[in-house]
């Protein structure tokens, strides 16, 4: 956007005839004549040597400050109302990229491409491809599968879909903590507190719960807490059969998890805490915010 930040005085000076400026300066903030920045803007030159407005025409209403008060800019309704479609795209080097809309379609794809990498925010796989020269010929985006985006309150705990974004999980946990009995939500509070210092907001808006779990990173902020909180992972195979695995048994080693070919992580079940049961998070890093951990811990005590 740097080129759009360059300004030219021709946009803000009214012309009396043709292109000859009259010297009357139009304030970019209000759209009305003033002298607030006349010298500043008149000394500004276009970096390309061309008049800015000729390359990107800007109408008077668009540079008039009152325009924005009269009508608030909104997200285009036609994009909000569009129908989502299943996608299949081909990339360089024979890469295939799929976006299924149904769980069955996802399972069929995983059956046909057992080595396919599932992605949501691409915050981990993108780094592997761009910086570690990893090659994944098939990528499946699972962002639009409803069963993987579940967030629901059950009688004995919470069900969290594996594609749920971390920022959405944070909002959900805050709501649950406010509404439920304090003795039940010790695990929720610990996870919510750990998420405060988990990466940055942009990453949390994109990254998913399941992606963070299945990456099985040794510096994961949340995986020790899932284990301490006695979370249960629900795993589904290509035939639709569901099995459950305790979080403490799911991680087999360095970046290794208990997922067979054709299996995917469907959801996470987080049980309510018992009376006098306490769960606590711990993270030590060089910086408080947006930094990888030196030491992580999840702790649970039942008195």
TrEMBL record:
<dbReference type="InterPro" id="IPR016167">
    <property type="entry name" value="FAD-bd_PCMH_sub1"/>
</dbReference>
<dbReference type="InterPro" id="IPR036318">
    <property type="entry name" value="FAD-bd_PCMH-like_sf"/>
</dbReference>
<dbReference type="InterPro" id="IPR016169">
    <property type="entry name" value="FAD-bd_PCMH_sub2"/>
</dbReference>
<dbReference type="Pfam" id="PF00941">
    <property type="entry name" value="FAD_binding_5"/>
</dbReference>
<dbReference type="InterPro" id="IPR016166">
    <property type="entry name" value="FAD-bd_PCMH"/>
</dbReference>
<dbReference type="GO" id="GO:0005506">
    <property type="term" value="F:iron ion binding"/>
</dbReference>
<dbReference type="InterPro" id="IPR002346">
    <property type="entry name" value="Mopterin_DH_FAD-bd"/>
</dbReference>
<protein>
    <submittedName>
        <fullName>Xanthine dehydrogenase</fullName>
    </submittedName>
</protein>
<dbReference type="GO" id="GO:0016491">
    <property type="term" value="F:oxidoreductase activity"/>
</dbReference>
<feature type="domain" description="FAD-binding PCMH-type">
    <location>
        <begin position="90"/>
        <end position="275"/>
    </location>
</feature>
<dbReference type="InterPro" id="IPR036683">
    <property type="entry name" value="CO_DH_flav_C_dom_sf"/>
</dbReference>
<dbReference type="InterPro" id="IPR016208">
    <property type="entry name" value="Ald_Oxase/xanthine_DH-like"/>
</dbReference>
<dbReference type="GO" id="GO:0071949">
    <property type="term" value="F:FAD binding"/>
</dbReference>
């Amino acid at each position: 956007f740097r080129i759009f930040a360059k300004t030219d005085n021709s946009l803000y000076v009214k012309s009396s005839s043709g292109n000859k400026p009259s010297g009357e300066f139009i304030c970019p903030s209000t759209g009305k004549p003033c002298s607030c920045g006349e010298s500043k803007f008149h000394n500004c030159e276009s970096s390309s040597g061309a008049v800015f407005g000729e390359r990107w025409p800007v109408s008077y209403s668009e540079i008039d400050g009152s325009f924005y008060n009269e009508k608030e800019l909104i997200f285009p309704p036609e994009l909000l109302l569009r129908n989502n479609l299943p996608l299949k795209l081909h990339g360089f080097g024979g890469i295939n990229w799929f976006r299924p809309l149904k769980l069955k379609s996802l399972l069929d794809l995983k059956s046909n491409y057992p080595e396919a990498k599932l992605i949501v925010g691409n915050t981990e796989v993108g780094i592997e491809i761009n910086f570690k020269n990893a090659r994944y010929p098939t990528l499946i985006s699972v962002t639009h599968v409803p069963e993987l985006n579940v967030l629901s309150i059950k009688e004995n705990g919470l069900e969290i879909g594996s594609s749920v974004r971390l920022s959405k999980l944070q909002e959900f946990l805050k709501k649950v903590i406010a509404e439920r009995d304090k003795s039940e939500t010790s695990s929720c509070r610990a996870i919510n507190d750990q998420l405060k210092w988990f990466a940055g907001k942009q990453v949390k808006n994109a990254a998913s719960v399941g992606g963070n779990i299945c990456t099985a990173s040794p510096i994961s902020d949340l995986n020790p807490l899932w284990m301490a909180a006695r979370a249960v992972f629900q795993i589904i195979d290509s035939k639709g059969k569901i099995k459950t695995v305790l979080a403490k048994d799911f991680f087999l080693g360095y970046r290794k998890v208990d997922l067979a070919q054709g299996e995917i992580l469907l959801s996470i079940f987080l049980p309510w805490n018992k009376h006098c049961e306490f769960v606590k998070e711990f993270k030590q890093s060089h910086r408080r915010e947006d930094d990888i951990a030196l030491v992580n811990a999840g702790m649970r005590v039942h008195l």
